[in-house]
Every structure is written in C-alpha cells, then in structure tokens.
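User: I'm putting together notes for a lab meeting next week and I want to include a structural view of one of the chains we've been expressing. I don't have a solved structure, so I'd like a prediction I can at least talk through. The sequence is below, exactly as it appears in our construct file.
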Amino acid sequence: MQELQEQIGFSAGQIYDYLSSNNGQATFSKMKKELDLKGNFADLGLGWLAREDKVEISKKGTSVNVRLK
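Assistant: Thanks for the context. Below is the predicted structure for the 69-residue chain, given as structure tokens.
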C-alpha cells in the first residue's frame, strides 16, 4: 500500500510541476496526455492536489480545466 501511495504522490508532484511550467493552468486531457501517466494516476494525483487545496478545477463544456491556486 505504501508503494501505491508514493506513486500517487509522485504523480501529484508531476502534475504540480507541469502546471507551474504552463502559466499555472492547463486542460486535464492535454496535461494527462503530455505527462503520460499510466492507469488512473493522473486522476489520483489531481485528487491529491485538490484535497491539499492546491488546485482549482473547473469545467467548460466537455473540457476540464485545472489551475494552481
């Protein structure tokens, strides 16, 4: 279980770094594709950041937008 939690935390770090280097925002689908996170780790990492209140998530049409707080 610890290894899984570490992998989720690592994914959260990748997402945070990606957003930091992209003016603090991106669409979730583009970010997920560019980071090439396997399985559900993009979802889990984003959830981790949302739980820590580090990102804002919004939806416009079918696009989900993510930005740093």
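A couple of points you could mention at the meeting. The domain at 2-68 is CATH 1.10.10.10 (Arc Repressor Mutant, subunit A). The mean pLDDT is 94.

User: Perfect, that's what I needed.
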